Amino acid sequence: TQLLEQSPQFLSIQEGENLTVYCNSSSVFSSLQWYRQEPGEGPVLLVTVVTGGEVKKLKRLTFQFGDARKDSSLHITAAQPGDTGLYLCAGEPAYSGTYKYIFGTGTRLKVLA
Amino acid sequence: EPEVTQTPSHQVTQMGQEVILRCVPISNHLYFYWYRQILGQKVEFLVSFYNNEISEKSEIFDDQFSVERPDGSNFTLKIRSTKLEDSAMYFCASDVPGQGVEKLFFGSGTQLSVL
Hints:
The structure holds 2 protein chains of 2 kinds. Chain A is an all-beta fold. Chain A has strands at 5-7, 10-14, 19-24, 29-37, 44-49, 55-58, 61-65, 71-76, 85-93, 102-103, 107-112. Chain B is mainly beta. Chain B has no helices and 11 strands. In chain B, the strands form 2 sheets. In chain B, strands 2, 4, 5, 6, 9, 10 and 11 form a 7-stranded mixed sheet that branches.
């Protein structure tokens, strides 16, 4: 069974602080996506990483895919209250033969003003 | 920007009743999915659908569940006889895999409450 474990599960920080969220697995993924979900809404795609070691930046967000494509991280610089939400990683297991995405356990971020 | 639309946004039903959740995927997408999220829990895969048939399904997707693409635009999830534990947010998603960068586009969800 492929699992994606995210840590931390909850994070409450002050505005302006930096933070890193981790997404780890023992399985290899063809690609990995990061989503942000607001209460009562569907997940909204932030980024997709495909190549091992790839780093992508989206304004204050930096995403990295591990060299072995088993893990990923999301780093937020100078967090703002608008960054508050549930952050989800999701990936397509490699060599699975099907297009089935599995989701991580989620990290609930709260940024206090 | 094209989006996945889901109706209704909220559905309340009595245990044992049938419900149909509706989705209109993005028009040029080829793969369609249903996921669900029980309050406070992770997003769980239910089923994927391609070329008018189920591509893969999870253990959650038992005989009470079925999916259909009755015309060229709609994609539906039917729960034949709802149980209390079916209460969850149900998300439809679509994508066009095989184009180098796989990504899912999600609808806003249908909140199903089974009483």
